[in-house]
Amino acid sequence: MKNRIRYLREVKLRSSCASAVARREDRLPRFLDMPDDAHDRLDQLNVAIVGVGSVGRNAALHLARLQIAGLLLIDCGRLKAQSVLTHLISPADVSQPKASNAGRVCKRVSPDTRVMVSDGTVQELPLTAFAGVDVIFLATDNLLAESEVAQRAIWLGKPLIQASVHGATLVGQVRCFSNRDGQGACPVCSFSEVEWNHLNLQTRFNCDGPPMGKAAAEITKEPTMSTSFLCSTAADLALVQILRYVLGLGAPVMDTMLEYCGYTHRTVVSPLVRNPECRCDHTTYERAPCPRPVPDCTLRQFASLAGFDGEELLSFRVDEMTYAELGACGCGGSRPLRRFVADGAHVGRCRSCGAPVFPRPSDSHRPVPRSVVADVLDRPLRDLGAGAAQWLAVRCGDRAVLFIGPENGQKGA
Amino acid sequence: MLKVKEILPEKPAGGLAELEKVRLGHRYQQMLEGAAATCGGPRFWRDRKGAMTRNVLALAEISPRFGVQNVDMRETLKIRAMMRVPVPLRPDADGRLRVANTAQLTLIYPQEALRQPLPGYSFVEIVRPLGVWHANCSAEPVQLLCLGAELPAGIRLTNIVLMTYGALSMQTTMLDERDAAGVMNPDAARWWQENTALTPLSQALFLGPDGPDDRD
Question: Could you say which of B45, B181, B183 has the minimum Cβ distance to residue A281?
Fold first, then answer.
């Protein structure tokens, strides 16, 4: 079964598309309390947008007009005929993937912005996809994606700004989650039973192929009922919050919710508070430099670098891999494996029956506790089947440390 | 040989909704404390694992057909258990269905199951017997029991135990191999479509006494 990890693709302009480009300085006002390095901050700003629909597309275009350093656009959907009603697109764009389509427009607006796109789901991206971004912008009504992005943003300690609309009440909402230390609120903190039921109803699995790997979820949801201008209002409000956050303008916006109501033309700002019963893991991974490529290091070295020498209740999460203690083949019985395997991969063939050997879920671990790998702690991960690992997290209770391989070139490590 | 009648704790009046009122016996209490001593992960997950495990152990206390052998709470929650339930096995050379009377299984509950629905085959592996002949159980080498196309986020582990009993005893089963919701062994699904008269393998309730048609 194929590994479902998907990677981002960079949008390139054809030379014939090159056009005259203005400089940001030509229009950007001198904001009150604007820091002296405002342009530098924008020059270095990288934003990921999850959900490039009627709200996210507007936000992407606004960010392109700010000529920021990088944009990551992620959306698994395609533009439909009805999208013309809420998205700033023309009928000629219908049937194109949302992320790629928006990516091309953003690149044309700001050729110096590095635009990366993924036309798949956010779950298919490696955790490291967000490691180099400064802000994650969330604009999806796919609750599974919302929960996944919320979790990744907490782990990586990335600010998350979420924009949404409620068409019938003319409400646009922007929530800013700082994720500074895992102690603040996240989008899942406010999930009620209604949201959990929606999430369960939205998610479907395709049972194709052998069930040895990770199934891809399919989302079936009702379309967002809204108007193009309410969607753009929400995106505009979100951009104000992003700009205020990045340039430090006015009162702090993090861990607040901004709500605009079109019936009253009132805005309300309220604090966001963590729900202690939240189902997300509210642990922000500390980042530590990885001295060598991840596969060249041993688990003991990582434990030591993380400051967990002597700790017994440790666990390791090695990329998206599972540590398999035992496998099974057509002969019956169990065979020792003691190695990391990718989701759904078989681990060679049985010498007796020739059938593929599969890891047994009963004896597979992700994350893997230290006690399970005690006898291989000093072997390089490359020798344990993790030659392709790009990151590793070591956890002890409520503290976890993340290592991302230097070959990934992610900033902020 | 001296026959010892097993005395089970009294079932709580509220049934499964009041499992927390069941007092664990010495063995299960020790098992819970032993597993809790090596429980890993963030605090909320450790708390959840402790609560879920306690409920499964309470269920084992009051059920005449379910016993827990081992609990692993280090990371993913894994519970090895024996279930006294008829388990259909691959028919013999004469085409006669064989039935085992016990299943050894592993209940697997990963942390992500709290916040996202997972495919129905993510939670139960039938370790023994091999050769399970069931539409909703993948054939060896790895026998995963599918309890539905997808199970909701945060599903209770005790519900998974009950669903497992219903599936193995074939009180609830999906036999349509054209429907992707749960069929893991199309050959078995077709065989069972032609032999529906044999289902269910038992009508006994999970918490009730054995039925007259229970096979031993």
Answer: B45
